[in-house]
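Below is how a single chain appears once it has passed through the pipeline. First comes the sequence as given, then the structure the pipeline wrote out for it. We keep one example in the README because the format questions we get most often are answered faster by looking than by reading.
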Amino acid sequence: MTDNAAVTRILVVDDDQDVNDSVCATLRQRGYQVASASNGREALDYLVTGSPDVIVLDLSMPVMDGYAFRKEQQGNARLLAIPTIVLTAGAVDQRVVDLGVAGWVRKPLNRDTLVRTIERHRRRPVADTHSALFYESDAMLAEHVVAYLKEGLDRNEGALAIVTPAHRELLAAGLAAQGIDVETARAREQLVVLDARTVLQSFTVDGAPDEARFNEVLGAATARVQRHHPRFRIYGELGDLLCAAGDLATALTLEAFWNRLLTRLACPVRCGCAAPRSEADRLSFARLGAAHSQGTGADAPRA
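Resulting structure:
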């Protein structure tokens, strides 16, 4: 049994019934929850309500082949967030590479290779993806966030950074010092950097954050990254701005927005926030820490 396999949902899309049945049987034996479709159109119908953690996709199929399915998937942010693994009997040529999928497995299938590929790319639960960094200094923030962003960029993931102007320059300098060509990454939209205050204002309606606008604004921002980098990560300082203004209640509201959005995006999000300075602040900030799956940094406050 693979770790956490019992809660991992797989959609297998293949028109060869023998292959489809065999793959489904293998995955069920490993403890996965499995659904199947015989072409891209059936898969899209399933995905209207279904939300698998991985899609295993054949390319050559009638009705709608894997290439056409992938094009439809790329036009939908929710579907694009689902890691897709291609099954191919042919060479992994440029056309396959251009699909931008999480990975591919050659036919005839090696079952262990398929399972390892699924485990490497499956979506993780929100509880594993929403973390907080409580920093005591800009130097500490730069060390942690540069490492976090660089890890993703080195893996050819995308990165969305929602930061204050001072931290934008700090992180750019830190990434450059680590050998990242920041200008090229931004030109390719592998690294998208947005101003935190502008983003916060864009989903604030009548003085309060609006969740529908939040989803719209963040959905558009992540779509920019996902066009070329389906796997991506986010670093944000929206809550930091609110906490600096003494508005912990609204910061907690935003963390709830993030948690609900992450059920659809399933990407890692790290929120930076200046560490509390007093014991009273530390007790209040414990609620903020509890809104994340884990805390990092100076006295990461937890309830």
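The two ends are 34 Å apart (CA to CA).

See the next section for the split statistics.
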